[in-house]
Amino acid sequence: MPNIEQLIVQNDFYHVFQTIYGFPGKSILGYEALIRSKSNMNPDLLFQHAMEQNKLFEVDSFSILEAISAYFNSPGSREHGPLFINIFPSTLVSPLFIDLLDTLVKQFEPYRNQIVFEINESIYEGLLWKSASFKDAIRLLRELNFLIALDDVGDGTTSFRNILDISPDFIKIDRFFSADLSTSKKKQKVVALFVEYCNDESNLILEGIEKEEDFETALSLGIKMGQGYLFGKPNRLT
């Protein structure tokens, strides 16, 4: 098993960025940061090892700082739009989270309202959503003008209750619903339900769009934002 702390010290990690588009004109709305390993470790495996070694906060906070720094220090960052960066619930409830926010506020003051924290789902951390510390962290993010997204909605612990409690700025529908959307009436009904709900509540993003026919169906259902390999794979910023 790789030593996660050693990999951090060796600077084994970097980020690629996937474009989030606005429809129907495919205008660039922002980017999502995705962590990668120079040693080609699968990101899911990376976080699994980090959890097993009690280093999840270290990896998550390192990833957040590095991604934000790479993004907003790149040429033309003001024209890039918001940056979506994943965060685990356990990071939000950590006593060290306030220190992380303090660092972000000091280093990236002009960009606070362009940083979107995507709350990651984890079957191991589902109970944390109901904790007082989690709710306090959400409240603090709002007070500091950061934005909030719920990630992979429909494929984990996120429930309609969580959506109502948090009132996220963005809801990202899991890629499961975009796959073969054009031929699945059931998936179309679910996507249409989210479109109707989000009209006055949140910005809705459909993830994992890979086929033109699924994209066309998404448009017909009212999807106005999305990302996926149909529009391009994640890459380093140029």
UniProtKB/TrEMBL annotation:
Residues 1-238 form the EAL domain. Coiled coil: none annotated. Gene3D superfamilies: EAL domain. SUPFAM superfamilies: EAL domain-like. InterPro entries: Cyclic-di-GMP_PDE-like, EAL_dom, EAL_sf. This is EAL domain-containing protein. The lineage of its organism: Bacteria, Bacillati, Bacillota, Bacilli, Bacillales.
